[in-house]
Write a structure and sequence with these properties.
Strand content: over 45%
Distance between the termini: 52 Å
Mean pLDDT: 88
Number of helices: 1
Number of domains: 1
Largest sheet: 11 strands, mixed, barrel
Low-confidence stretches: 11-16, 18-24
Structural class: mainly beta
Number of strands: 11
CATH class: Mainly Beta
Amino acid sequence: MIKHKELKYRVVLALFLSPLLNYAQERKTVYPHSVFWHKTEINEFFNENWGVGADFVYRSKNELNSGSMFDSHLRTSIRPWINYQFTKNSRLSISPIGYMHTNEYVGKPEDLERPNYHELRTTFQFFHHYKHDNGKWMHTWRYRYELRWQEQADADEYRFFTRFRFRYRIRYMINSNDFYENNTLYAAVSNEIGLNIGKNVVLNTFNQNRLYVGLGYRFLDVARLELRYVDRFRTRGATGYEFDHGRGIMVGLYIDQLSGLWKSNDQQVRYSD
């Protein structure tokens, strides 16, 4: 039973908050986009623990929610990685410096005047797996911490801030009990949230949310090809009232152990993200 004073308090609180919530909803604007993403990732391990890798990313988009997802450049990036494998189920990776070239989303006419920009990024990443006994299900938790230096228009100094990203993914092996068996077909779903951190981040720390749903296929023992549906919801600026919503397809090529392409009988595939 709600007491009279408590009921009165709830009514007053609701009356006070309702105009604020309605005002926030009225000011919220979402700009939809069609996108295409591609990623190539290559890894090589020299022993049980140490390895190196690199990834290349290309993305494109349409503009003003019109036309093809291939119409306009969105991002090109390249990152080297140093990997340390703690166990067969966990890995620490560091990218000392990565380079990104970005043309932002174009959701409204004034965005056409926005210049492209360069970014340098240092990334620390840790992920770990859990596999069920039958091997059909595979869970992955990934944690990333990024140091970011973004070029600013009409300014000599780069804007520095950091970002924390957390992703959970689940895979299901369709025709096998082992993710690392050749010719394995698998399905995967993942979700990742990103939070901006630092003194240059004001009012709004939420950066983006990424949802992936896709299929993958392992071939040549150590290579994988993935086709995904990507749904990315990203805030614009610091106010939290404007958002970009990119939806489209992603094609990924992953080589878990480069030397395994020509020495598959000698090299065992390592656990990889």
